[in-house]
Automatic annotation (TrEMBL):
UniProt GO cellular component terms: plasma membrane
Protein name, UniProt field: Type II secretion system protein J (GspJ)
Pfam families: N_methyl
GO biological process: protein secretion by the type II secretion system
TM annotation in the entry: 21-41
SUPFAM superfamilies tied to this protein: Pili subunits
NCBIfam families in UniProt: IV_pilin_GFxxxE
Domain of life: Bacteria
PROSITE patterns attached to this UniProt entry: PROKAR_NTER_METHYL (PS00409)
Compartments, as annotated in UniProt: Cell inner membrane
Topological type in the membrane: Single-pass membrane protein
Keywords assigned: Cell inner membrane, Cell membrane, Membrane, Methylation, Transmembrane, Transmembrane helix
């Protein structure tokens, strides 16, 4: 009787051993699961990082498009310097662009407005003065713009700007010049006796904006006074 019980218990124990997992098998399974989890986490992390970078790049591109669209509109409405003898209507010097534009509004007479683009602390800002028909007020706004006076609120157009360069194209010349101003009606020394000479008119403005993290700057050419 005892021998039969012993034989039965041994057979039952062997069945349990055959149906379960050994310690080595459990360790191998846990290791495989850990490897799969690490690979899955890395894949998810790379997807999240790529999405963050793509979103940031899309925001930069959108900001650049808005900045260029606003610049194109302002350049197209640049006033004709020949109507303002002895007054500057555009100044592209350093990281600052100042211009005088025409303002056309319904049921309103044409007015003049000083607009300033300025890079400060890595942010490209646009500031506009109140439209006016008074030349004295226009001159005051122009001087305030050149002095970087905070006389009106500014709007941030693009962040992470590391470079802001401008070149101008002048009638009668065969190449771009760095910066430039538009000042009409000012006589310059004559190249020969009795031959008057006036400075040519600026017709084009090239702006290059370098964004942090991008290899090449975004560059666009604008026509001045196209409207």
């Amino acid at each position: 009787m005892r021998s039969k019980l012993t034989a039965g218990s041994k057979k039952h124990t062997s069945r349990l051993s055959a149906a379960g997992f050994t310690l080595i098998e459990l360790l191998v399974a846990i290791s495989i699961l850990a490897i799969i989890a690490v690979l899955g986490w890395r894949g998810l992390d790379s997807i999240v990082r790529a999405r963050v970078l793509l979103t940031a790049e899309m925001e930069q591109t959108r900001g650049m498009q808005l900045a260029f669209a606003q610049l194109e509109n302002d350049c197209a409405h640049l006033v004709d310097a020949s109507n303002f003898t002895g007054r500057e209507v555009l100044s592209a010097v350093g990281p600052r662009l100042v211009m005088v534009r025409n303002v056309f509004e319904e049921n309103q007479p044409t007015r003049l407005q000083v607009v300033v683009y300025r890079v400060r602390d890595g942010v490209l800002n646009r500031r506009e003065m109140l439209p006016t028909r008074e030349l004295a007020v226009l001159d005051q706004d122009w001087q305030s713009a050149l002095a970087d006076a905070e006389v009106s609120p500014s709007i941030a157009l693009q962040s992470q700007v590391t470079g802001f360069e401008m070149r101008t194209w002048k009638e009668g010349e065969n190449g771009w010049r760095n910066g430039g101003t538009e000042l009409a009606g000012v006589e310059k020394p004559a190249p020969a006796p009795g031959i008057p000479f006036k400075s040519g008119k600026l017709t084009g403005l090239e702006i290059s904006i370098q964004i942090s993290g991008r290899e090449l700057p975004a560059t666009k050419v604008f026509l001045l006074g196209a409207v």
